[in-house]
Amino acid sequence: MRRHHLPLACVFAALLAFGADACGLVPHIGGDERHTVTVWLMKDSASQDFLRRFTEDFERTHPDLDLDIRIQDWTGIGAKVQSALEADTPSGPDVIEVGNTQVPQYVDGGRLLDLTLESVRDWGSRDWLPGLAVPGQLRNHQYGIPWYAANRVVIYRKDLFEQAGVTTPPRTRAEWLAATEKLDTDGNQGIYLAGQDWYTLSGFIWDEGGDLATQDNGLWEGTLDTPAALRGMDFYRRLQGLGDGPVAADEEHPPQAAVFARGKVAQMVAVPGLARAVVQQNPDLAGRLGFFPVPGRSAARPGAVFTGGSDLVVPRRTDQRDGAVAVVKALTGAKWDTELARAMNYVPNKRTLARAVSGEEGVAAMAAGAAQGRATPSTPEWAAVEADNPIKDYMTKVLTGADPATEARRASRRVTKALEVSLG
């Protein structure tokens, strides 16, 4: 944000004009004066080459605007963004990149600019990926504008599939289980799936028509004990049992890329970029890895997946509203959104832009899944659930033989209690 001080004579002139735009008292873009739009983007979200080209093009097509792009670290960014939104100073950011599931906590208190009109009228919001768009909403108002997405796919060993007689990647859950059972032989794991990979479980629950929590009259309630959610957990149990993933740990303990790189795993569920880490640790696997979307209940469409990625938001207190909106429009528009997706192997923010990444196998699989993408419940209180995650405990208990319905009820009560405590 950069404020522009006005001569006293201009203020008097504007007052005499009863609020007319005399001497630029009413903020606007135009005239000879240049304005600076400060943009916070996260480290590694975009390459330096992309940022250079975007800045040159934007400033050429917006001759009254300068861009000041400041790169931020993810570590500690939540507190930094909160401080920026609460501060009443002219030096804060005008546009901020935030994680898609972080938007609800920043919307709280009316600190973000409502961009619903622009979204519906100008930006084609109906075609946005739901996993990016929905977390950016509060009571049907759009505050977070989808930028890019990333989600899980199945990374698999083409050579092990061939040895097991699996000629094509499975497209349905039933086919996936059958293929994985064939692969779970000769000392190989059919799949490496950690017992507490709750993001993957979430996709199975959503695919069955369930959810982690639902809202009724403003109150959230855990719903892991619904029939749909229990069906999702049952599928997870059956799939996880076709490998040796630890039942009491998540996918980072140990890092699943390291396990996969040892050469005895046929599949894992991860973002495509993890394949690079596998090959770095085991160069013999170069050229042997493939990708396919997480299968759905039928071949008609891929399974639901948790969508990660970023939205762009504008602080309500910005004094460069028009400039900030212009930056958001440009960055999330078709031209630069597809440029970013190609440069960084992301999924573009709209289903209709998926063809832009169709030439890259892993990203194409990711884009197919992203069309069915979802995110965690859109409430700022969800962070309280993840802080002491009852879903992980629930999964471990089911995988070690406890009654699923009983443990699901206990976990749902813990989810509800966490949301209630945070509201207090």
In short, what is this structure?
This protein has 18 helices and 14 strands. Helix content is 41%, strand content 16%.
Nearest-integer average pLDDT: 91
Residues in helix, %:
40-55%
Query: Which sheet architecture does the biggest sheet show?
Result: 7 strands, mixed
End-to-end gap = 34 Å
Task: Give a verbal description of the structure.
The structure is a single chain. This protein is an alpha+beta fold and 424 residues long. It is built from 18 helices and 14 strands. It has helices spanning 8-16, 48-61, 77-86, 103-107, 116-121, 130-133, 158-163, 173-183, 198-207, 227-240, 256-261, 274-281, 321-332, 334-344, 361-370, 382-387, 390-399, 404-423, and strands at 35-42, 65-72, 95-99, 137-138, 141-142, 145-151, 153-157, 213-216, 219-222, 267-270, 289-292, 305-313, 347-348, 373-374. The strands form 4 sheets. Strands 1, 2, 3, 6, 12, 13 and 14 form a 7-stranded mixed β-sheet that branches. The protein has a 3-stranded antiparallel β-sheet with strand order 10-7-11. Strands 4-5 form a two-stranded antiparallel sheet. Helix 17 runs antiparallel to helix 18 (404-423). The model is unreliable at 2-30 (pLDDT under 50).
Question: How do the helices and strands line up, and which of them pair or pack?
Answer:
Blueprint: H1 8-16, E1 35-42, H2 48-61, E2 65-72, H3 77-86, E3 95-99, H4 103-107, H5 116-121, H6 130-133, E4 137-138, E5 141-142, E6 145-151, E7 153-157, H7 158-163, H8 173-183, H9 198-207, E8 213-216, E9 219-222, H10 227-240, H11 256-261, E10 267-270, H12 274-281, E11 289-292, E12 305-313, H13 321-332, H14 334-344, E13 347-348, H15 361-370, E14 373-374, H16 382-387, H17 390-399, H18 404-423
Parallel strand pairs: 1-2, 1-3, 12-14
Antiparallel strand pairs: 3-12, 4-5, 6-12, 6-13, 7-10, 7-11, 8-9
Helix pairs in contact: 9-10, 17-18
